[in-house]
Amino acid sequence: MDRRKRIEPDVELRLFILTEDHKRDPQKAAAGKEAFLTNAQQLRREMKSRQDKRTSKAPVNYRSGLAKSPALRMMLPILMAVALVMGTGVVTVAASKNSQPDGMLYGVKLASEDMTLELSGDSVKRFEFASQFVQNRSDEIFALIEEGKIPSDEVVTRYQAQIERALKMAINMSDDEAVISALASLQFELEAQKNALVGSMFVQPEELGVVVRELLIMVNQYVNVCTKGQENLAWLREQYQPLNTSENTVESLQASSTPQPAGGNNSGNNGNPQATHTRTPGAGNSQGGGIGNTKTHTPPAWGQGGKDTRTPTTTPDGYDPTATKTPPGQGKKDD
Amino acid sequence: MISSNEQDLITGARSFDLDTLGAIYDRYSPGLFRYAMHLLGDESIAEDCVADTFTRLLKALRNNQGPEDHLQAYLYRIAHNWITDSYRRSPPTPYELNENHRADDQSQPEREIEMNIRRSNVRLALRSLTPDQRLVIVLRFLEGWESSEVAAALDKPLGAVKALQHRALDSLKTMLLPDEEEVLHE
User: Fold this and answer.
1) Chain A partners of B44 at a C-beta cutoff of 8 Å?
2) Model's pTM, two decimal places?
3) pLDDT per position in chain A (335 positions), as tens?
4) Do A43 and B86 touch (CB under 8 A)?
5) CB atoms < 10 A from the CB of B1, how many?
6) Which residue of A has its CA nearest to B14?
7) Closest to A237 measured CA to CA, from A246, A225, A224, A248
8) To the nearest whole angstrom, how far is the Cα of A1 from the nearest Cα of chain B?
9) Nearest C-alpha of chain A: how many angstroms from B130?
10) B107: which residues sit within 8 A by CB, 6+ positions away?
């Protein structure tokens, strides 16, 4: 039985106009499937590596360690008193989880994230947290975009710094397989964020759209770093020197949250101090060969170089974000 | 041979079996693409929607979440949320005439333009429904789903789906029927 017969005939007639055969480009469908299965493969590898790590480690009895340490035993009453005072702190930290960059509790949120990182001794866990915090920064930016607000330089550089930190933590993993797995996982997260940015490329007002496109270029470059890093770990390690423990802490993120000084790569705009706060997509990050040509690592894309074109251009690696979609009203076909 | 049973597909997907995941993509992506095209009318954005839907499925599976049953309904719910977000992100674009509409021997440009205006109006009307009403209308009347299947996709009781459908049809009648001819001939 034709179920459409049950609808009000007049409305049906008008809805029926949308039911024409939407032919899907078979090449795009095949590419979509391949991308999906590649993502699945990466995730499977990541999960397997995590599982192997868990099974290879003997369980640690923290309580017995605590009981054996005389110093800790003496400090126990003090710790308990501190814990009591901090009870209210816990409530504050919990309340800060959803706070946004302009919120009163945002500082608490960042501090609690740093604390979480510092307290997690395992490098896998530490990377997972760092990766989650990249997602948090991305969510904050999308919350602003949805409200039509332009993310400030500080918000964007904090996002970039968090990606850098996750990358460094990936490199800090114990063995190559774990590094590759972590990079695959980070790449997966960043690709999802990139896709979301693609969806917001032409958001209004135009100034916000420009920022989104610049962000897209930046995130895409980090996706490329992850891809290239999985193929060539030596190159990645050269770009990102392994961290010592203190670099994982609050100071390191705060230091890297400052907009990067100009250039340092291969462009002709190196070192223009006036350009520190100028957003220049891709500029200053190699005019001859992309991220891979540098000896010292310089974060891609944000706040580098000295020329503010404010126009999204093809990035050094050849990615053209404007090629992804047709801007509304410019040859956009209805069907 | 991959089982066509949804429960088997979910079990295979949970263990990240690539053959099963491939089968899931082959089975559901054409419908999801069609669904996205109905509402978005843009091939490239519809492909983005499909890609993100499957990415979100993987993420959910990785976190030991995802569907326990009704895999198809689960995927449509993700796509539905994606489209609702996409509506929030970008304002509706009214249909515009462009240079591509030139008369030639085969096509009838006036008819094509009229059809495009009508499609645009229907999409605008669907867009102005609540997200749940829109999902009910598209799945019931464009995709031909049973009410019980729609209820699974929405995770709502059957009665609630029928109420949503009733209200949505009322709204669509108000929006689409009275003034359409006027709009077309303005």
Assistant:
1) 324-326
2) 0.45
3) 444 445 566 777 777 777 766 778 898 999 999 999 998 888 888 777 777 766 665 444 444 444 445 665 666 667 666 655 666 566 666 666 777 888 878 888 888 888 888 887 788 888 888 988 998 899 889 888 888 888 988 899 999 999 999 998 888 887 888 888 888 888 888 888 887 787 777 777 888 888 888 888 888 889 888 888 887 888 888 877 655 444 444 444 444 443 343 333 433 333 333 333 334 333 333 333 334 333 445 555 554 443 343 333 333 343 333 333 333 333 333 33
4) no
5) 5
6) A44
7) A225
8) 11
9) 17
10) none
Cβ atoms of residues B49 and B82 within 8 Å: yes
Q: B163 pLDDT band (50/70/90 cuts)?
A: very high
| pLDDT for position B100 | 54
Tell me if B173 and A11 make a contact (CB, 8 A cut-off). Answer: yes
Could you tell me what percentage of chain A is helix, strand and coil, using 3-state DSSP and rounding each to the nearest 5? 65, 0, 35
Query: Which residues from chain A sit within 8 angstroms of residue B172, using beta carbons?
Result: 11, 14-15
Query: Using an 8 Å Cβ cutoff, are A143 and A100 in contact?
Result: yes
CB < 8 Å to B173, chain A: 8, 10-11
**Contact B122/B116 with Cβ under 8 angstroms?**
no
Contact A196, A146 (CB under 8 A): no
Helix (H, G, I), strand (E, B) or coil at A153: helix
Q: Please tell me what DSSP assigns to residue A326.
A: P
CB atoms A334 and B137 under 8 Å: no
Total CB pairs under 8 A between chain A and B:
148
d(CA A85, CA A96): 18
- Residues ≥6 apart with Cβ < 8 Å to B68: B10
Tokens 């992100």 identify what position?
Answer: B89
The CB density around residue A310, as the number of other CB atoms within 10 Å, is 15
Q: CB within 8 A of A63, min separation 6: which ones?
A: none
C-alpha distance from B10 to closest chain A C-alpha (Å): 14
**Distance (Å) from the C-alpha of residue B55 to the closest C-alpha of chain A?**
7
Cα separation of A308 and B103, whole Å?
44
**Contact indicator for A94, A88 with CB cutoff of 8 Å:** no
Residue A332 near residue B93, CB atoms below 8 Å: yes
> B88, A146: Cβ pair inside 8 Å?
yes
Contacts of B89 (CB under 8 A, 6+ apart): A145, A146, A199, A200, A203
Residue of B nearest to A212 (CA): B89
Q: If you search the block for the tokens 């958001």, which residue do you land on?
A: A203
User: What string of DSSP letters covers B59-123?
Assistant: HHHHTT-S-SS-HHHHHHHHHHHHHHHHHHHS--------TT----SS--HHHHHHHHHHHHHHH
